[in-house]
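Quarterly update from the structural biology core.
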Amino acid sequence: MTSEWSGVILWILFAAMTAFVIAAVLRPLARTQKRSIGHEKDVALYKDQLAEIERDVTRGVMAEADAVSARLEVSRRLLAADDMARSERKESEAPSNGSWRKGVALATMILLPLGTLGLYLAEGSPDLPDQPFQARINAPTSQLPVEALVVRVEQQLKQNPDDLRGWEVLAPSYVQLRRYPDAAMAWSRAIAIGGETAGRMAALGEAQVLAANGIVTPAARKSLARAVELDPAEPRAQYYLGLADIEDGNRDKALTRWKKLIAEAPKDAGWKPGLEAEVARLESGAAMPVAPGPNAADVQAAGEMSADDRQAMIEGMVGRLATRLDENPNDLAGWLRLIRAYGVLGKTDEAASATAKAVKAFTGNDDALAQIEAAGQVPQ
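Predicted structure, tokenized:
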């Protein structure tokens, strides 16, 4: 279909929609006359009913006592319908009323289309060529917003689901859009196609942590540990494993891990200043650090947050974990992380309460109870 025909069809659609709106606006203006006709029919009906009652009495079909009550009821309805018909007939026949209705109808029919067209010509861009969705996503990659890039890659992957490069482009885009579960899925797919590498396993672990609201879950620990096996200097994996150390109540182990990472990092590593700030804050006795890790775009901003803002974010993460455990109390690893996190934060009352809830959830499981007791004894 040519662009000229497309333009004609578009204007026909606009005209049809305008006509529909005008009809909807004008419809109430014709209702009074229709209602009046309806009440006139009611009046005629009730008159016929009165005549029928008289015929029934004459034939002896209805007793006079019954006829009296029937006449009263029908007469009451007749008077009400007659009053309504007279009132609406008077209103519709009033000269001023008819002029008003005709004026409103005429103004609507003329001014609504003209006003809409004038507004579009003044504020719109009728001279610009159309921009079909497919053409927009087919623009050069450097000109695409992230959302359009994601759509393009998703379409390509539907046609070629084993395109490793496509999954490796899509996964970081999902992270940028905060679609963390989708990012974890994309990295898992990339690993299934291209095999395990330190970078892919670390990226998968990061997506799993972010999807869990900053908690280093057992699945994330497994991915990160595998990344470190493949490359001990992988920064993202070492960062999040440091978070896992702190969740386990081992602050010194996390500091040792991160200091070694900083010492071996290239001088121009973009994540290095943020991690140095985390180490300095941790050494000063502050609370747990927060995700994202050293390869994520927000780490520098996290390092520049005020102490109050940082504390609020950390407590929010711990609070979400506590809420999740209230809903699913059978997560032993979650209870251990929560108890240790409260210990690191110095919240002894909350740690004791979490310990009690965990003990109740795992009563009869001696191994679990031993782990819970050990978690509750983390040095403050």
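The chain has three domains: 12-123, 141-302, 310-375.
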